[in-house]
Each structure stands twice: as C-alpha cells, then as structure tokens.
Amino acid sequence: MADLEQSALWQRSPVPQLVLDGEQIRAANNACLELLGLDGATLEELDWRELLFTAGNQRYRFYSYLTDEYTRPSIDIRFRNTDGAVLYLRVEKRSIGADRFLIALTNLTEVKEDSEALQAGYDEFVRVTMELETALKTIEKQNQLLEKQQEKLQNELSLARNIQNRVFNHDFSRIRMLNVAGFYEAMANLGGDMWQFEETDHSFLAVIGDVMGHGVAASLISIAAKTFFQKQFETHPDEDLGKMCSTVNEELLSLTGGSSYITIALVR
After folding, report:
1. How deeply is 28 buried, as exposed, middle or buried, from its count of CB atoms within 10 A (0-12, 13-18, 19+)?
2. What digits encode the pLDDT tens for the residues 185-232?
3. DSSP structure class, residue 202
4. What span, in angstroms and rounded, lies between the C-alpha atoms of 109 and 125?
5. What's the helix, strand, coil split of the chain in %, to 5?
6. 0.85 cut: is pTM over it?
C-alpha cells in the first residue's frame, strides 16, 4: 500500500483517487487534491464525513456502500469541497485491506448541471405545451359558442328576410290602370330597397326607393319609409308630390335623427 501512495505514476493519474482507512483519508493523488480542494491539508487529520458530504443521507449511502450493503459497482453522491462548492461525483471502490479502500472519483457536476438544464428546459416545454393545450381547448369552446351564436343569428336574419319579403310583397293584379309587374329580392339577407304602389279611382301612385347601406338598420328604415308613404297614399292621394316627400322626410328624420337617408322616385 505504501508503494501505491508513494508512486509518482499514481500521483500523476488523471483519475481522482484517494485511500480511506476507516474514517480518515490516508492518501490522495494530485487530481483528487485538486478536485476536493485539499492542497496543503494534512490528510491524516481529515474526517471524510465532515469534509465530503452535504447531508446525512449522503454519508449513510457512502458508508453503506463501503460496507457492502450496496452491491452496485458505483454510486453517485453529492459532495461539498473545502471551497464550499457542491460537486456531483461518481464513487467506485476497491478494497485494499481491512477497512481500507481505494476510491476513484468521477466528476459529474457539469453533466448533472447540463441534465438539470435540459430537465428545466423540458419542464418548461411541457408547461408551455400544457398551457397551449388549455388555450386551444378554450379557443375550441369559444368557437363552438361563436358557431352557435352565428347559427342563431343566421336563423334570425332568415326570419327577418322572410318578413321583409312579405312586407314588400305586392298583388299587382289589383292594379287596373297600368300593366305592372315586379319581384322583390334584397341583395344581402336584409336590404334597404323599398317600394309601394296605390291606385285610386283616377290616379296611380308609385314610389321606389333605396336606403343607404344594407343590413338590419337599412331594412328597418325601408319598412318605415314604405309605411309613411302608404299612409300618405291612403290619406292624401292627390297631395302635391313635393309636399308628400317633405312630410315623409320629416317623419324619417324624426325616426333616424339624420343618421341615414333614402333616395326615392315618386310618380303619379
């Protein structure tokens, strides 16, 4: 054993090695001294339990390994060197006498740190992935709600379109003075086009108009305009056309506040 401790080849070995005798470090090569920060220390005075381990369970695992309670060829343990730095080392033993062991150390600190960094990156990836999955599920639920709302809106627009068509449906066969025919169909679901016809004993009145824009608002204004002109045709069929337009215009302004307009052709 003394030959090993004094061997220049062993001292220069790149593999950190030390000799344990009971609880004392009896010898350590240069690589081990550098790794554990033992330069200049009196090895016989060092207790491995106080020097090398950061937690009681680590000391117990090391002791169990030395006493053959661990049958594996090596164990990985967390050490703390004299500088206070934590090292992750792989420990391999070889018995060289009663309670004496040659211990070889492999520094796994960088591998451990890289592994922890990779694990942290993987954990972050998993977290982001789970958040994305949760977000996608939320988006899917929102899309389902939007689809239901859209379906409901389409049904309501379809109903409104049918009502508008019935409102503007006209029985042209009742007109005797002229041969008149027409077909009403809005460009969109709801439109701002309108018409109204009226025949008296001695005259025929017709108005055709187009409200600015499309959609629900234009449709409502077109129906209001039809109603206003129908009232004028029925109550004042012989009134001056300009005055008739002025009256309907005032009624539409009162209804819309001037936010929209309708272009019409009024004939008698």
Report:
1. buried
2. 777 778 889 999 999 888 999 999 999 888 888 888 999 999 999 999
3. S
4. 24
5. 50, 20, 30
6. no
